[in-house]
Structures
1.
Amino acid sequence: MTLTVLFAAPELWPQYETHLPKALAEAGVTANVVVAAAPEMVDFIVYAPSAPLQDFTPYRNCRAVLSLWAGVERIVGNETLTQPLCRMVDPGLTEGMVEWVVGHTLRHHLGMDRHIINPGHVWDPICPPLARERRVTVLGLGALGTACAQALAALNFRVTGWSRTEKSVPGLHCLWGEAGLTTALEGAEIVVTLLPKTPATENILNAESLTLPARGAVILNPGRGALIDDDALLAALDTGQIGHATLDVFRTEPLPKDHPFWTDPRVTVTPHIAADTRAVSAARVIAENIRRNVAGEELLHLVNRRLGY
Ligand code: NDP
Ligand code: OXD
């Protein structure tokens, strides 16, 4: 049987039009990948938040919706979507996130700015501590948080990871649940937020929790803008409780031109580029999931609609 896979993210089509059919063929799946089809003919939908397709009601024969994004907060509450929803766990995306997190951690750990931005040519021979003396906390121990935490631990950082459910990851001090959050944040010098945006994680870094890290701590947020209360962060920067924030994601994107983050020297803005889904590897993930579903196997990376991630 030839399946119909609707690729519903038109602006991404040029990246996938070769790789997705190739990956499906390699997975042994016979499918036509199309950008438009009669809804009742569609077996699988490949989705991105920018997709014009938001009403899934007519796709009554669709077996699963496969997101090209890891974060699914823009689709998870869509009531017209009754089919299983899978998020993206892409080795290429993970690799990119590890590079972004390690790069920005090292910037702050080594105090690189002191030497890169040194208009007065000050000879400032302060040697940074070793990574083994630096406490880093990663909020979120999923596909991305775990990979980043392990990469930092491999560089000898003292890494604590925090998740919703109990975990044990070699090399990491693992904490979980509400009770674990305070301990995870207390005394942290660098805090990385790699949580999904859900009702339970919104504003997790707020006026109260921002008092917990070590004075002058650095926040790295490649997760979602809503994880941080912006005003509380600006206030914590003003008091020096937080020394710097490197932010990749924002409540409104693009970040509005008049947002104070743009001009604050204690904030580094990167434009949601921490990690991109990579077409070559992501196409294989999509193809494997379609193969599994057709073979009667369980889908990978299924979203729990109740939890929102
Ligand atoms: P996962 O779903 O694999 O992991 C999410 C982690 O967050 C899990 O460890 C989960 O705990 C934890 N978590 C969720 N809710 C809570 C809670 N209430 N309390 C404590 N921990 C919680 O997601 P990924 O690692 O793949 O991605 C994380 C996020 O990164 C995405 O949702 C997206 O928002 C963002 N992202 C950003 C990108 C960028 O370019 N800036 C690119 C890709 C993703 P548990 O393990 O117990 O379930
Ligand atoms: C994602 C993202 O969720 O790019 O994949 O933010």
Note: The mean pLDDT is 98.
2.
Amino acid sequence: MKSVLNGKTVVLGITGGIAAYKTPELVRLLKKAGANVQVLLTDSAKQFVTPTALGTVSENPVLTDIFPKDVQGSWTVHIHLARKASVFLVAPATANTIAKLAHGLADNILTNIYLALPPTVPVIIAPAMDTDMFVHPATQANLEILRQRGHIILPPESGLLASGLTGIGRLPELTAIVDKVNEVVAGAKGDLSGKTILISAGPTREAIDPVRYISNYSSGKMGFALASAAQKRGATVQLISGPVHLSPPVGVDLISVESALDMQTEIENRFIKADVVIMAAAVADYRVKSVSDTKIKKESSAGFELELVKNPDILQTLGKKKKKQILIGFALETDNEIEHARQKLVSKNLDAIVLNKANEPGAGFEVDTNIIRILPATGGIIEFPKALKTELADRILDFCLTLSEKNHV
Ligand code: PMT
């Protein structure tokens, strides 16, 4: 059976209680259920469990510092990690960390990431401590604040405690924690839940003969990033892609196509049910008029001419048919970019067009980053600095969400 944790990122914060010694096993169970586990360790937790053990079982670097020394990039790692989280789990959670979370203190990597979490990320807190500390009105009041905030508090169990006393305060069974994570992730509603999003990606290939074709440099990275981000935010995603070398994003319905005509058929078949369509594919504008059934021999003539015919403009066709759908195109330009993008926006009847340049370093085809501007049909230009395509995918989806709220789609 496919686990709901497959491909999900569990950010696990471990704080300084004796139960921390159990967490390598917790990580192992979460990994077994398919999750990518990113561990955060407070200074006190290091007294009970080592980053080496947790790094080994999680197969990820363990973050222990707001200013990580061995993580490339910068001290803003906590912001990026918070955005990747499918769920934020604190186990064991000490009274001290619970108090910090309740009151918004940010003095270590765990509390920083907590504050940077998007509001859609569910938070599960598993307190574990001595009975007197757990039942203290201060701890109970802090837990109540977290409960009111919508977080899930996993009640500790009763039994023998590290102090030698018996009472409530033991970390629940690890399998119960994993079950809760599963349940929460399965029920988590992203801000795009209930939306069906159709995304196109990659190039199209227009056959010349059985061994040759006309195509372009699109890698599919932009479209795949959009599909993956939309799926993580709860949308039902159908990704129509030309030939690329990327793994299908988890949870996305991938329909592979070759030519512009194939892509048109697959998109049009799904258009009626879509709420949002984003065309990130680089569709070939022309195809060969008559494709040879056999390999064209170079001896057959001195020169070689191909007669090309125009492919249908998929977006333009959708623009004519659209009813409730939000239609987003991409414009790949080399010059007079704003003018050309606006022409496409109007002629294809789009709600917005995402402009990127083919001849700008770090933008367009193949690279992991892009530099985009969104031109909404209502006017204006929204500019974004150079960023990863995975990051920009979320910004494009944020924009679609505001449009859909305005249009009540
Ligand atoms: O895949 P990557 O390597 O990550 O690169 C990303 C990208 C550069 C391909 C992507 O960001 C991008 O710009 N995609 C659109 C490329 C393109 O074909 O642009 P265009 O200006 O030629 O077309 C305008 C729009 O019409 C596009 O949304 C395109 O999908 C659509 N179109 C174009 C031709 C056609 N026959 N039918 C279409 O629907």
Note: The chain has two domains: 9-187, 196-407.
